[in-house]
What we know:
mainly alpha
Amino acid sequence: MSPFQAEVLRVVARIPPGKVTSYGAVAALAGQPRAARGVGWILNRLPPDTDIPWWRVVAANGNLSTRKLPGGLGALQRALLEREGVPLEGEGRVPEGEWWWVP
C-alpha cells in the first residue's frame, strides 16, 4: 500500500457518522489536492467487509457517485447514509449545509 493510499483510508475513517465529504476534500486532506479520482480508485477497491466508511464520500456537488454502478452500490450507499440520518434529494444528492464534514 502506498503512503497516499494509507492516508486516504486514514482520512475517510475520520469522517463522522451522519456527515459526508467529497473525493477532492479527501485528496486534499491526504496531501494530494488534485487526486480526487485516485481517492475514488482506492475506495472502489476496498473489500466488501471493510470498516472504512466509503459511503460517506460523495461527489463535490453532493451526488452519490455510486448511483449508476452495477451491483446495487448506489442503493447500498443511499441506505447507509439514510441510516445515519443524512437526507438525500432526488436521485441521490446530499444537500449543502450541516451534513458536510470540514475538519
